[in-house]
Every structure is written in C-alpha cells, then in structure tokens.
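Homework help thread (please don't just give me the answer)

Our assignment gives two proteins as sequence + structure token strings and asks us to describe the second one. The first is just a warm-up. Here they are:
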Amino acid sequence: MVELRKRREAPSDAPQPPQKKSASSTAATTESGSTKAATPSANGTAETKKPAVGDSIDLEGFGGDVETQDGEKTTLKKLVDESKNGVVLFTYPKASTPGSRMIGTTQACLFRDEFTPLTATGYSIYGLSSDSPKSNTTFKTKQNLPYTLLCDPNATLITAIGMRKAPKGIVRGVFVVSKAGKVEAAEPGGPAATVEVVRGLVKGADIASSTDAGDTVEAEEVQKDAGGDEGDTQDASKVAAEVADTAEKLDGPADA
C-alpha cells in the first residue's frame, strides 16, 4: 500500500531588510520643515558654511558664548552692538611652542602699534584664540595690549567664522563684520597680512567719508552762491527804484 504524504506549502516571501542610507544622502530638517543637505566632514560631523565677504550673517547666537581675559562672558552680537562701526577679530593659534608664540606676539604687537589708526573709523579690535583667561591675561599684561583678548576654548566662534583647522587647530587670520552684520573680511594670513587687511578697510572708509564731506561742503557753497545772487538782484532793484524816484523829483518843478 502506498503512503500519501502531505505536500508542503511554499514559504511566503521573506521581508526585505531596510536599505541603509549613505552619508552623502543624509539630510538635516530645518525648523521650518524644509530639508537642507548636510555635508559630512572627515570626522563624520556636518560642516557649516564658512561666511564669505559680502555675506550678511544673523548675529543672534552666532558663534555662541566666549569669555574675555577677565572671565566675563560675551558674544559676537554683544561686541558688535557695543562697537561704533563693527568688529575686527584676529585669530591666532594657541601658543604651545616658542615659534608659534613668537609669531603670535608679532601679530598682537602689530595690532597694538596700529591700534589708533585702525580704530579711527569706529572698528573695535579683539584678539581671538582658544587660550584660557589666565593665559591671555598674562599675555595682555606682558605685551601691554590696548584691546581685549577673547577666550574660546571650545572654538565655537572660531569655527563659526571659518578659522578652525582640523582636528583641533586654529588658522591665523582676520574676520571683520560691520555694525549691520555684513562680512567685510574673512581670510587667513600672517601677522602683517592681517593688519594690512584692516588697514585697507579703514582707508576705504576714510575715502568714502571724505567724499561725503566734500559733497556736503560743495552743496553748501552752491546754496551760498545762490543766496548771494539773490542779494545782488535785490540791491540792483533798490538802486533802480532810488534813481526813478530822484528823476521824478527833478521832473516835478520843470512841469510846474
């Protein structure tokens, strides 16, 4: 007798494993609900766009909190608000070797020696590094620096202005932002080069100011000349009236 075996049912389709998203396709969702592509860096974190000359930046919360050499907390927005025309930040690496210390000293002293002309148009100058308040206080006192040194141990502001060098370094350079939040300079450079950048901005501001003052003076002179012509016309009319009156008096007896 033949034994009949029950036929096995075909197995159901197994669920497909979810596809992994590549780092290049990762997107960050903004508060408004829109998405913004995040650019991965070498360490896997998203890089922020470096501000460029001509950009207008929102100073509210920009760069986070930093400290002065006296330990007082401040922000870039507060420094800009307190300035007359804008803020100059020159960055220098943490002085860890005699070589870098010498270059940092040169840069700081150049800004010290040029402090008066560089601030003539209303810029406020600050040195920015990751050094501690104690270290910067010693540095400021020893070099007799007339400006405040900012301490950014977490490099939040240094990163925001594009002067961070991976993995933990700092690029020597200069960053200038106007009172209105417009980036006027953002570039790396040596001690003399960073000072020259600011000197160029000050010179340009001086030329613009002189041009405006010249236009004002010229307008006043034109108005003055117009007023003089009007006075001459009035004097001529007065003389003509007096002559006519005299002639009338002379003609009166003759007709009688």
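The one we have to describe:
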Amino acid sequence: MHNEAAIKKSGFEKSTYDVVLRNILDHAENDNKRVFIKDIAYHIVSPIHTPVTIAPSLRQYDITPVDTKTSNPAVVPSSVLSKFQFTFLIRDPRTAISSLYRCTVPPLNEKTGMYMFLTSEVGYREMRLLLDYLYQDDAQRKDQVCLVDADDLLDDPTGIVKAYCERVGLPFSEDMLRWGSDENQARAKKAFAKYYGYHEDAIESTGLKPRPHPGKHYGSTEEENKKWRSKYGEDGARKIREVVDANIADYEYLKQFALKASTN
C-alpha cells in the first residue's frame, strides 16, 4: 500500500533500488567484509500476474538477454542477482499466517500500525519463483543457494547453523547462538524500532536453544480451525485457513531444498 506521508517520514523518500544496491556494495568492497542483508522476496519479485520489468534505476545493469524458459521474475537484473549468495528462511504457513494475522488485529495492531490483513505480503509464491530462477540461472552455483526451515532451526540450532556455515564458507562459532550483550540488544532495538510490534520476542531473546520437544506438532485441520476461532473468531479463522491452504503447496515445495543439520 503506497503511503506518501509515511514514505517521507521514513527519510528514504529519495531512495531507489540503485541507491540501496550501491550502499550495500560499498560496505562490502570498502570494509572488505561479507555483508548480510535481511529482506523479503516479494520486495524484489514482480507482483504475481503482472509483467516483469526491471526497476528503472537498475536498467543500467540489465545486460542479460531474456530467456523465455528461465526468465528472471525479479525487478533486479540477473547481473546484479549474481553478486549475492541467497539464503531463504521459510516457516510453516500454519504458524506463519496466524502470526501475521495477529499483527493486524487488536491489541497488537496498535503497536504494528497494521490494520489490514494483506495476503499479498505472505510471499511463498515469490520465494518459489525466485528460488527456481536461481537454481536454473547459470550465474548462480546451485550449491550456494541455501534454504533453512524455521522448524529445523528451532529443533537443532547448532546443527543447522553449522550446516549453514559449511555451505557459505564461514567458520562456525558457538557465539553465533548467543547475542545477549547490552550493546547487541540496544543495537537490535534501534534497528527494528521501525517495526515495533513484530519482533519483540526475538529482540528480547538472548540466544537460540533447542525446543524442549523437537518436531513441531501440527494438529488436524479441525483442531487448527478451532484454535484460530478461539483466538480470532469465525471470520479470522476463515481468513487464516484460506491463506494457509493457498500457500501450503508452495511451502512444501520449498521445504524439499532445506538444509540438513550438520553432524560434524
């Protein structure tokens, strides 16, 4: 949803894809560091059922001929995508969708400022389109495209983070599972202040430990519906169920590419 006032208030009203790209690459090149970026696939993949066009500010980089069989679904040209190593983090829709819906209804929506449940922000199909393209594009090494399932990470944080480090070529450290210093907490709160209401549990955490009972149990459809009705009413449960059912196939497709925990 386009909101001119909110965009101006953010201080980024003059930002373009190219401005953001140059900022990222400058940090990587000048600081000689690997830069980690968290973003959402639907921010760079053209909306479903609309023509795919490269963002105007990035057309200067568009040097890759269009291949009708593996055409790029993103507004970012292949020559730019090839500069990055992609990691996809997925979460089962049965928990992700209900969590998203919770952010749009009282009392949490007073914090998030999000008053509409926008199914266009779910993003499973966009992730699938982007992942398929990266696997098909010769500019991407298939063994460098990573996908992590949140359930696997919560069941075995050490094993999954080790596997991730092995895949991307980083040395593993136990410190990666701990971040509880006052300095880190203050930095995280400042960075995510714009998204107040969405990340409190993560921001207030101090580390990642295995769940007490590994293996997330998902109940039957009726059990799930009953739980959602008790929390969000009949209309809320119906909306959540419709979106879950519409995205579960894409989630299951993506899950087949998930990293397996390291045994080293």
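TA reply:
I won't write it for you, but here's a hint about the kind of observation we're looking for: The beta strands are 87-90, 146-149.
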